[in-house]
Amino acid sequence: MSLWVDKHRPRDLMKLDYHKDQAIRLKSLVQQSDFPHLLVYGPSGAGKKTRIMCLLRELYGSGAERLRQETMHFTTPSNKKIEIMTVSSNYHIEVNPTDVGIHDRVVIMDLVKNVAQTHQIDSSGQREFKVVILNEVDDLTKDAQHALRRTMEKYVATCRLILIANSISRVIPAIRSRCLTIRVPAPTESEIANVLHIVCKKEGLSLPTELAMRIAKSSDRNLRRALLMCEASKVQQYPFTADQKVPEPDWQIFIKDTARMALSEQSPKKLGEVRQKLYELIIHGIPPDIIFAGLLKELVRNCDMSMKCQIASHAAQFEHRMRLGNKPIFHLEAFVAKFMAIYKKFMEDSLGDVF
Amino acid sequence: MQKERKWFKPIFEFNETSSPKKNKRNDAKNKSPTYEKPSKRHNSNTTYNFNDKNWMKNFEPVNIEDVAVHYKKIHEVEEWMRTACNKSNNDMLLLSGPVGSGKTATVRTLASKYNIKVTEWITPVDIEYPSVLGDYEIKESQSKKFLEFIINSANFTSLLDNNSCKLVLVEDFPNVFIRSPTEFTDVLQQYKHRAKSPIVFICSETHADNKNTAFHLFTASLKEQFNIHHIMFNSVSATGLKAALKRAVDIISKKYTFTYNIPTADLIESIVNSSGGDIRSAILNLHFASLKGSQFNLETSIIKEKEVKNKTSRKKKSVSNKFMSLGKDQTVSILHGVGRVLNPKEITTSDGHKIMSHAPKDIIDQFLSHPSSFINFLEENYLPHFSCINDVDKALMALSEGDCLISEWREKICQEYGLYVAIAGLMTANKSPVSAWNPVRGPKNMKIQYPSLSELPILEPNYLYKGKVLVTDYLTYTKIIGS
Predict the structure, then answer these.
(1) What does pLDDT average to over chain B?
(2) For chain B, what percent of residues have pLDDT higher than 90?
(3) Among partner residues B387, B473, B474, which is closest to A268 by beta-carbon distance?
(4) Residue of A nearest to B379 (CA)
(5) B260: three-class secondary structure by DSSP
(6) Where are the alpha helices (DSSP H) in A204-284?
(7) Which residues in chain B come in under a pLDDT of 50?
(8) Pairing outcome for strands A68-75 and A81-88
(9) What pLDDT, on a 0 to 100 scale, did the predictor assign at position A199?
(10) Cβ-contact A17, A191 below 8 angstroms
(11) CATH superfamily label, A4-183
(12) For the region Disordered, what residue ranges are annotated (chain B) (predicted)?
């Protein structure tokens, strides 16, 4: 039994459910003989990977879908052995270089070199190049990004890179200019609801329109999450009812709790408790930027407009610093402390007015 | 005495030169506690040779009372040595302590007191030169050599000695053992089986844990297995240092007035203050500070330190002098530094300004650890010291700025600035500190553990999932769906 997300993933560019215009362009791109490096970006759950897999199928035929997992080993210049998971077919290889942290440069250089130095044995009727897919390019270290720039130029004859990122703002301009950038916007809520209907129909289930819209709304325009939510709701209660509970991700509930703690009391002791919660979130792998966004959304809920503005600007400042710095917890904590200070002053002022 | 020595001196001259230390000791022990001039022994030349390498020896302790170690510690070692040598079995003793705390001096002086012959292992230099053909000679392994040496010296007496008691001393551990501690266990095992003399290991402790031999090589289980007696030395106390320096001054004023100026009490005081409990460095400083030859006195370069309250002994304010050019750099351990930052002390100077007893700059200068690890410590521990959220906000602002600066690794100066921003910010932010005992905690391990694919069996096996996506999207729902 596989998940709906995997089972009903479109395999052909022409069968995509939204952004059809873009799909046609992609198809015509592949039909031309040459094909540049690609930088595909867009929010999580928008369908970037799906489009790339369709593209590969268009390029190489169904052979690109026969995947196998492999663990590759690399040695860093400091003689540290690192290993990384790759998924590959005969025509492409996919890897998450950020899995190895600061050693990502070694992975990129060695991997691309390995792939690029081997030519296709039978090039008749096939493309002359292989494809390397790199995930989370925006989270690569600057070092690795510069290494990538050089590698892209050097091996352009035998391999094409497809880079995947959430946002291109953290990709260095040198890479941006060497790639054809393709933006995959998040699907609208109605598009998500539409996909949910299609999937439910394939599964032989009937989905009330209201529920589909509610799932789409609570999914943050993330199709993957919407499909998982839908399947989870089905497990919890079927037949569907229009007003049934849609399960939220548990970390979102956790962030809401944390925000509530900060609102309940503004003292160093409470901040200590909030910090423990933040630690837990970070250690479990919730990306700090998502924590930031979640906290901000919850904290400003009962603030007036001027305070909202103030807090949001501080959040932006700390979020920016977090990107520059090494320790996300510092900046998250600083933001919570800032909020507490502002909120406490506001409460004291408004109480003062009452008396 | 002199006559007695004469009969072997010309014949076994090599012995005299190779281990002058030992012979000197044995001579000295039979004599009265006063010092004899080395010049007398070496040659008939009465003027002191200025370039004599052994000038340090002039100040070495002769009697056990002269050793600047607490008498109880000495007694402990003495007790062990007596029993071990009487039984003449293969007991093992481990001495550890900071550098210059008198470990070796204690052992050597005690050995001479009880007429025990000390044989010390010194790791040979084994740089291998390739032969003409370019291949390397295969040499015996260091550990093998070491084992052979300690067992031979434990079991066989030298023909030149009539001593019955022997002691093997190991201060210089071959590097092999640091790399593979198991080999060391094997050596000890062999020693236990075959040797017939006690052995003493001396380890200097350093601040850096990774180089601490006493800690690494002699694990608790090892100590238990071989019944190793462990005596820990502390750094020499100020009174001990003073007494030792006083003795040195006595020696100077008695015999070496032609090479040294007689040091003043002030000078001694500053040497004691700047040596930080290291007797060896104190003697070196004394030597340098009181050597004749310079036109003007070194005392002019003594800096008067600002008044420092002496916390431990409830004395009044004591003025501590330090040399500008001499003495060890003060270093501060990480925990000490954390304490200084989080509990800043303010002192009011005579002209009414408030200054900090430890300026942020001083703390940074005295630091050995990496800035980011220190900031992590601060971050973990600052919170219980604050009572007001506004102060916390300011402190965190500084920490967050500091973190930004520190992560700029391409500019080395940024690390220092970042540390400064964070430390100064923390020290000045707290307007209403909470005074309570707060144990210092180590920073949290923030390694992210993404769920492994084996925990989530529903997922496609041959698909590359991103860790972030697994956590944010899949984890919650696969639990529901899979149940």
Answers:
(1) 72
(2) 2
(3) B387
(4) A330
(5) strand
(6) 209-218, 223-236, 250-264, 268-283
(7) 1-51, 298-327
(8) antiparallel
(9) 93
(10) yes
(11) P-loop containing nucleotide triphosphate hydrolases (3.40.50.300)
(12) 1-48
Q: Classify residue B88 as left (phi > 0), alpha (psi -120 to 50) or beta.
A: left
Chain B interface test: which of A133, A281, A330 (most B C-beta within 10 Å): A330
* C-alpha angle B403-B364-B406 in degrees, rounded to nearest 5: 20
Of A222, A236, A287, Cβ closest to residue B468:
A287
Q: What residues of A are in contact with residue B443 (Cβ under 8 Å)? A: none
Task: List alpha helices for B333-411, DSSP H.
Answer: 334-342, 360-365, 371-381, 389-406
Distance of alpha carbon B286 from alpha carbon B245, whole angstroms: 8
CB A182 within 8 A of CB A41: yes
pTM: predicted TM-score of the whole model, two decimal places:
0.67
- The CATH number of the structural domain formed by A250-354 is 1.20.272.10
Distance of CA B407 to the CA centre of its chain: 32
Nearest to B472 among A249, A318, A321 (CB): A249
As a whole number of angstroms, the distance between CA B242 and CA B228 comes to 33
- In chain B, what residues touch A318 (CB-CB under 8 Å)? 400
Residues with Cβ within 8 Å of B397's Cβ and at least 6 positions away in sequence, in order, are A334, A338, B425
Measured CA distances, B265 to B143, B249, B302, B321 (Å): 49, 10, 13, 12
Query: What is the rounded distance in angstroms from the CA atom of residue A337 to the CA atom of residue A268?
Result: 8
Q: Which residue of B has its CA nearest to A71?
A: B464
* Residue partners of A238: CB distance under 8 A and separation at least 6: A205
Looking only at the bridges linking them, the beta strands covering A180-183 and A38-41 are parallel
**Rounded distance between C-alpha atoms, residue A224 and residue A230, angstroms:** 10
Write out pLDDT tens, residues B21-70.
444 444 434 434 444 444 333 443 344 444 455 667 777 777 777 788 88
- In chain A, where the domains are located: 4-183, 189-236, 250-354
C-alpha B91/C-alpha B407 separation (Å) is: 52
CB of A194 within 8 Å of any CB in chain B? no
Q: What is the 3-state secondary structure (H, E, C) of A162-204?
A: EEEECCHHHCCHHHHHHCEEEECCCCCHHHHHHHHHHHHHHHC
Coil, helix or strand at residue B216:
helix
Q: What pLDDT was estimated at residue A165?
A: 94
DSSP states of A281-313: HHHTT--HHHHHHHHHHHHGGG--HHHHHHHHH
Per the listing, tokens 């849609």 go with A246
Residues 6+ apart with CB under 8 A from B430: B344, B385, B386, B391, B395
The torsion angles phi and psi of B308, rounded to 5 degrees, stand at: -120, 130
Contact B400 A341 (CB under 8 A): no
DSSP track, B52-118: -GGGGGGGS--SGGGS-S-HHHHHHHHHHHHHHHHHT---EEEEEEETTSSHHHHHHHHHHHTTEEE
Residues from chain B that touch A284, judged by Cβ atoms under 8 A, are 448-449, 471
Instruction: Please report the DSSP string for B181-214 in residue order.
Output: HHHHHHHHHHHHHH--S-EEEEEEE-SSGGG-HH
pLDDT, tens digit (0-9, with 9 covering 90-100), for B113-158: 888 888 888 777 665 566 666 665 556 677 788 888 887 777 776 6
**Which of A235, A279, A285 lies at the smallest CB-CB distance from B444?**
A279
Among the partner residues B403, B461, B472, nearest to A325 by beta-carbon distance: B403
Q: How far is B384 from chain A (nearest CA, A)?
A: 8
Two tokens at A111?
């991997």
Sheet containing strand A68-75, strands side by side: A68-75, A81-88, A92-95, A130-134, A159-165, A38-41, A180-183
**Closest residue on chain A to B480 (Cα):** A232
Reading the block at residue A142, the tokens are 């600057």
Give B449→chain A minimum CA distance, Å. Answer: 6
Which residues from B are below 8 Å from A69, CB to CB?
Answer: 461-462
**What residues 221-240 of chain A have any CB closer than 8 A to a CB of chain B?**
222, 224-225, 228-229, 231-232, 235-236
